[in-house]
Design a protein that fits this description.
76% of the residues lie in helices and 0% in strands. With 83 residues, it is mainly alpha-helical. It has a single domain, classed as lambda repressor-like DNA-binding domains (434 Repressor (Amino-terminal Domain), Orthogonal Bundle). The radius of gyration is 12 Å and the shape is globular.
């Protein structure tokens, strides 16, 4: 998968699988839902700082969704470090 859009693709899967709405994530982040929509639909990528904030927000909304997002987005990197 290309780097561009990878965060959005991972976020969409995590939200869908764990029943977290774009609206609830946006509310937790204190941003407009349109920003989350743009990430999920791969129009824009969140910044590295925002990815960190997404993980923190997801941990509060649904820890399983946070783990899924990190696994999908950073899985290969984390696996390489752990090996």
């Amino acid at each position: 998968m290309e780097i561009m859009g990878k965060a959005g693709h991972a976020l969409k899967q995590a939200l869908d699988r764990h029943g977290v709405s774009q609206y609830s994530l946006a509310a937790k982040l204190g941003i407009e839902r349109t920003n989350v929509y743009r990430w999920v639909h791969e129009v824009r990528d969140p910044s590295a700082e925002r990815v960190y904030e997404i993980v923190k927000a997801l941990k509060q909304l649904n820890p399983d969704a946070a783990r899924e997002f990190v696994r999908l987005y950073l899985g290969e990197v984390v696996e390489d470090i752990e090996s």
